[in-house]
């Protein structure tokens, strides 16, 4: 009987061993549960954020799905104290086992499973925890969790065979979700302490490792005392493991829990408008006319041209990975290296903020106090203002929601005129107030907007990009998306057409008001000044003073159709620009980015450089998968370009942009053109240096929101100062390589007037009176 019992036990043991072995074999083959393919084990973390880098190596931001804000960081860029804290707390024998710690497992079975000691610790190794995070679904019961364990053991052993210990530690830290949109140690270190992982202190490392036990329960933001206690437990484990001395523990454990917390968000940091534009640019689909509303055919035309001519436009949908899938900027962990210089970007954002927010906005608010139609022009009737506001109401999300809920128009409009509690934006922070939704519309309309771009004329590299002043509340991009009337900044294109047709800067034109008959209709342009009225003046003087009569005279001598064709050669894509005499005064809509790109032709010997945003893209393994080259096209001859630089320099040296000299003390060679549209609705300035082209626009959200006075609303006052403040900072930073002793690349002894003649213009003084076009 005793023998039979022994045989039974041996048989049972043998069957148990064989059954266990068979079960693990089945798990290994994927017959039981889920076993990831070996290629997935070799690249287990496929979902992490794409990183956008500046030209000077700074991380501008990331693109990610929801909270998958994971940015990979290498082992050698993680603080040693962080690794020590993790090993000491989560898996002290990490370097001694092969994925499963049988000592810890036995302890957990006896103490937790049999004796019920919940504080006895678990048996999972770091490798097992990584396997669980990567490949196990959330268990909903103890039984389900027990069934998952054997699968995780097999995966852990495979991970150990595939990776080194350092790689496993790195994957664990890169994958773990530390809450608050902080997935991965790089984002977590920045979110909680505003640091890189390699710069974390011992206490900071212990705090983050403390989250690994339960990130919600030990969260330092919500539960600071509990988090501090858990941090000290981690420090104690580091003492036991020999990573810290007791004396160090006594010192560190008394330190307060100090955070520099901020939630990582794509709206934070430098170049928010640029990053969002680039995201849309790279993920664009092939344009289909039916997908564009009739009022936005200009965008369809622009997108169609970009799809055919720019490899970056729609890059994700034009290129495929090795597995045949299109690239996904949210999950493929790409590195996008842009042309933006983080220092110049910072200078541009500060210049725009300093001028518009600190100077123009207070002046505008003061002027609005006396307007019954504020923020709209006093020239509008009450009925016109109401019509504009009703259109704005219909564009609101609030209107859409109420409409879908079945509310009538009367009910909706009544709700927009009913006071309610709300928080509104100010440049000093959110403010709680009570006002009607309609008043809030007018309130937000009262904020002035701006767009600024700085680019290299030789290759098109965009160095700074300011699409607005606050991305969270005013997300519309006024660099590449928005188009506004350009006023006199169009005149250099007209003058360049004249140079191409045999004119010189010294040729003369009558400075008188004339009436032109076009297609049976008369057109009489106005001018903002009557200086030298009735005289013959040079074309150089006409552009320097932004004289409308000289521009109209030139247009009468040239072909308006040829002018439109030339504008398209300059890269201006608006299909709604039609040939007419009045076109010479800039009534057409053009984007800030298009203006800057077009003006590069004057600096770059007649060759236009398209805006270039990205130099290369790398995959998650560091392989270069795309490189981009400048896109150039010849617009005008080299001689004409030199003549234009000669005339545009005179706009600064005595013309409408001369305040760059006497007010902002910019002494180097500069060229440029101011622009102002009807009623001061749009203020423009395009400024050129030998190595930079900068374009700026300032105005209201609607064209009927503007300054009454030209003193504040003209291009020289509204837009030019942003260029000046920006260039002051650029020149101050010698490391950027821009200097005021740079000269335009014009041959020595170049004669802009080879036929002689003309007059010697008086370049002294300033004429700030700008143009008004019909």
From TrEMBL:
This is Penicillin-binding protein 1A. The keyword Lyase does not apply. GO terms for biological process: cell wall organization; peptidoglycan biosynthetic process; proteolysis; regulation of cell shape. It comes from the Bacteria. Coiled coil: none annotated. The keyword Nucleotide-binding does not apply. It holds the Pfam family Transgly. Keywords: Carboxypeptidase, Cell membrane, Cell shape, Cell wall biogenesis/degradation, Glycosyltransferase, Hydrolase, Membrane, Multifunctional enzyme, Peptidoglycan synthesis, Protease, Transferase. Its main location: membrane. GO terms for cellular component: outer membrane-bounded periplasmic space; plasma membrane. Pathway: Cell wall biogenesis; peptidoglycan biosynthesis. It comes from Xylanibacter ruminicola (Prevotella ruminicola). It catalyses: Preferential cleavage: (Ac)2-L-Lys-D-Ala-|-D-Ala. Also transpeptidation of peptidyl-alanyl moieties that are N-acyl substituents of D-alanine; [GlcNAc-(1->4)-Mur2Ac(oyl-L-Ala-gamma-D-Glu-L-Lys-D-Ala-D-Ala)](n)-di-trans,octa-cis-undecaprenyl diphosphate + beta-D-GlcNAc-(1->4)-Mur2Ac(oyl-L-Ala-gamma-D-Glu-L-Lys-D-Ala-D-Ala)-di-trans,octa-cis-undecaprenyl diphosphate = [GlcNAc-(1->4)-Mur2Ac(oyl-L-Ala-gamma-D-Glu-L-Lys-D-Ala-D-Ala)](n+1)-di-trans,octa-cis-undecaprenyl diphosphate + di-trans,octa-cis-undecaprenyl diphosphate + H(+). It is found in: Cell membrane. In the C-terminal section; belongs to the transpeptidase family.
């Amino acid at each position: 009987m005793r023998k039979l019992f022994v045989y039974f036990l041996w048989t049972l043991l043998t069957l148990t061993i064989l059954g266990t072995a068979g079960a693990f074999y089945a798990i290994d083959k994927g017959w039981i549960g889920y076993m990831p393919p070996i290629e997935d084990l070799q690249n287990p973390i496929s979902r992490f954020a794409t990183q956008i880098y500046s030209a000077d190596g700074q991380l501008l931001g990331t693109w990610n799905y929801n909270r998958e804000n994971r940015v990979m960081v290498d082992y050698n860029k993680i603080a040693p104290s962080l690794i020590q804290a993790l090993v000491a707390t989560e898996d002290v024998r990490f370097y001694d086992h092969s994925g499963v710690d049988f000592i810890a497992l036995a302890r957990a079975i006896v103490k937790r499973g049999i004796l019920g000691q919940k504080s006895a610790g678990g048996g999972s190794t770091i490798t097992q925890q990584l396997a669980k995070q990567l490949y196990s679904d959330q268990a909903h019961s103890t039984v389900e969790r027990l069934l998952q364990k054997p699968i995780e053991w097999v995966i852990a052993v495979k991970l150990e065979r595939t990776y080194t210990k350092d790689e496993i530690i790195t994957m664990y830290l890169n994958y773990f979700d530390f809450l608050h949109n902080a997935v991965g140690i790089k984002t977590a270190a920045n979110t909680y302490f505003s640091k890189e992982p390699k710069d974390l202190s011992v206490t900071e490392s212990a705090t983050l490792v403390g989250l690994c036990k339960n990130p919600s329960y030990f969260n330092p933001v919500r539960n600071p005392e509990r988090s501090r206690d858990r941090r000290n437990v981690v420090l104690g484990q580091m003492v036991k493991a020999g990573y810290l001395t007791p004396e160090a523990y006594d010192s560190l454990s008394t330190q307060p829990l100090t955070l520099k917390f901020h939630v990582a968000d794509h709206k934070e940091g430098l170049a928010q408008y640029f990053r969002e534009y680039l995201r849309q640019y790279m993920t664009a689909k092939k344009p289909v006319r039916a997908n564009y509303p009739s009022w936005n055919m200009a965008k369809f035309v622009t997108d169609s041209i970009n799809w055919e001519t720019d490899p970056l436009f729609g890059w994700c949908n034009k290129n495929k990975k090795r597995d045949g899938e299109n690239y996904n900027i949210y999950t493929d962990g790409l590195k996008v290296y842009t042309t933006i210089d983080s220092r110049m970007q910072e200078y541009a954002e500060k210049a725009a903020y300093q001028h518009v927010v600190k100077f123009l906005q207070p002046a505008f608010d003061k002027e609005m106090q006396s307007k019954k139609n504020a923020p709209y022009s006093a020239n509008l009737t009450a009925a016109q203002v109401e019509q504009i506001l009703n259109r704005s109401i219909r564009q609101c999300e609030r209107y859409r929601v109420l409409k879908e809920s079945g509310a009538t128009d009367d009910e909706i409009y009544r709700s927009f005129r009913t006071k309610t509690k709300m928080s509104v934006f100010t440049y000093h922070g959110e403010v709680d107030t009570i006002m009607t939704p309609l008043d809030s519309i007018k309130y937000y309309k009262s904020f002035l907007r701006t767009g600024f771009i700085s680019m290299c004329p030789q290759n098109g590299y965009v160095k700074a990009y300011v699409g607005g002043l606050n991305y969270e509340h005013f997300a519309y991009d006024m660099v590449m998306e928005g188009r506004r009337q350009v006023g006199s900044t169009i005149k250099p294109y007209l003058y360049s057409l004249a140079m191409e047709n045999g004119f010189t800067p010294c040729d003369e034109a009558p400075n008188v008001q004339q009436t032109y008959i076009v297609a049976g209709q008369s057109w009489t342009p106005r001018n903002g000044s009557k200086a030298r009225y009735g005289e013959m003046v040079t074309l150089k003087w006409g552009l320097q003073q932004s004289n409308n009569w000289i521009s109209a005279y030139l247009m009468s001598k040239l072909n308006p159709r040829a002018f439109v064709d030339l504008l398209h050669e300059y890269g201006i894509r608006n299909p709604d620009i039609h040939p007419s005499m009045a076109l010479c005064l800039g009534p057409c809509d053009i984007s800030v980015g298009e203006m800057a790109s077009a003006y590069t032709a004057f600096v770059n010997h007649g060759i236009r450089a398209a805006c270039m945003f990205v130099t290369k893209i790398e995959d998650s393994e560091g392989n270069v998968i795309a490189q981009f080259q400048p896109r150039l096209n010849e617009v005008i001859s080299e001689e004409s370009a030199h003549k234009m630089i000669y005339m545009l320099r005179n706009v600064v040296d005595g013309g409408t942009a001369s305040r760059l000299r006497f007010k902002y003390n910019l002494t180097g060679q500069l060229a440029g053109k101011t622009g102002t549209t009807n009623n001061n609705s749009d203020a423009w300035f395009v400024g050129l240096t030998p190595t930079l082209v900068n374009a700026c626009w300032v105005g209201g959200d609607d064209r009927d929101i503007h300054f009454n006075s030209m003193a504040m609303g003209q291009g020289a006052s509204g837009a030019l100062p942003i260029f000046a403040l920006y260039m002051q900072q650029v020149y101050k930073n010698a490391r950027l390589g821009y200097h005021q002793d740079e000269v335009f690349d014009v041959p020595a002894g170049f004669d802009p007037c080879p036929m002689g003649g003309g007059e010697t213009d008086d370049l002294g003084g300033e004429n700030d009176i700008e143009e008004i076009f019909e």
